[in-house]
Design goal:
There is one protein chain. The chain is of the alpha+beta class. The chain has two domains: about 120 residues, no CATH class; about 110 residues, Gcn5-related N-acetyltransferase (GNAT) (Aminopeptidase). Helix content is about 35%, strand content about 30%. It contains seven helices and eleven strands. The protein has an eleven-stranded mixed beta sheet, with helices on both faces. It is globular, with a radius of gyration of 19 Å.
Length: about 280
């Protein structure tokens, strides 16, 4: 099992940020490619521009944005305009998730191009190691779903949003696409052979990205998410990962739960939106 008391945290520097930003960018690229394969009419696509992963997943999709702006290489104004033109062809808004580890010129350029910050996300991380003392409820079984169970995983994930009726259909679609990504593992938690919770795991360059957490309302507070966390982190260790990451809105319950499990805040990422009326 995975310990929650770890002292060998790497420094939260540019190198760490590059590792964390890359795994999330690659995970989202795989989502966009999966949508494009399943729904060609969506025009979902992505492009690497100056080390920045620019993704279009639909005008209203939260994945229609960039990752890695300025973190892998400095961005120039002409390159930023090229990114803006990528979104303009779809008449989509322009959003960038930007690490605070980028150089000051990137922030200066965003201000010059009339962007404004609209959201803050805490990028959280922890090193991985084995510890047999970490336990979860024995009544909960966690396993990786098979290819013929993608719909089961997706419907379970969507049921976790059932109290928010306006999001259920959207989350079902997102979950169906997510489950079919070729390099992402979908984990399912069961109680008495009933699917009750979900979690996903993406791996890139030794970093394990945890996402897709959802629990159906009547199974909450029984330890399903803890069991899913343990299972995914143990799997990550076995395949050679030495870091895990997850993202949470600043000050949210998700952040607090992550901190209880040994995660620390590496940095707070800012989401920028282009507000120029002639763009997007």
């Amino acid at each position: 099992m995975i310990t929650t008391q770890i002292n060998n945290f790497p420094f939260a520097d540019l190198t760490l940020s590059q590792r964390l930003e890359k795994v999330e960018a690659i995970s989202n690229v795989e989502f966009v490619e999966t949508r494009a394969k399943l729904f060609p009419e969506s025009k979902a696509c992505w492009k690497n521009i100056a080390g920045t992963y620019a993704m279009f997943d639909g005008v209203k999709s939260p994945l229609t944005q960039t990752f890695g702006l300025g973190i892998f290489q400095p961005i120039t104004e002409s390159e930023l305009i090229e990114i803006e033109d990528f979104y303009k062809q779809f008449q989509a808004p322009v959003f960038h998730e930007v690490s605070p580890l980028v150089d000051a010129e990137t922030t200066k350029l965003l201000n010059q191009r009339k962007y404004q910050p609209i959201e803050f996300t805490n990028v959280m991380f922890r090193p991985l190691q084995i510890n047999e003392n970490s336990k979860h409820s024995e009544k909960i079984n966690v396993r990786i779903v098979q290819e013929n169970e993608h719909d089961l995983w997706a419907s379970t994930a969507a049921k976790g949003w059932s109290e928010f009726l306006e999001y259920v259909d959207f989350m079902l679609e997102i979950s169906q696409i997510s489950a079919k990504r070729k390099n992402v593992l979908s984990f399912l938690a069961e109680i008495d052979n009933k699917a009750v919770a979900t979690g996903a795991l993406s791996i890139c360059d030794g970093v394990a990205l945890l996402a897709g957490a959802s629990t159906i309302p009547d199974a909450r507070k029984q330890g399903a998410q803890l069991a899913l966390l343990n299972a995914r982190l143990n799997y990550a260790v076995k395949v050679g990962c030495n870091l895990a990451m997850m993202c949470a809105l600043a000050g949210s319950a998700s952040q607090k739960n992550a901190e209880r499990q040994g995660f620390r805040i590496a940095y707070t990422r800012i989401k920028w939106q282009l507000v120029d009326k002639n763009s997007g």
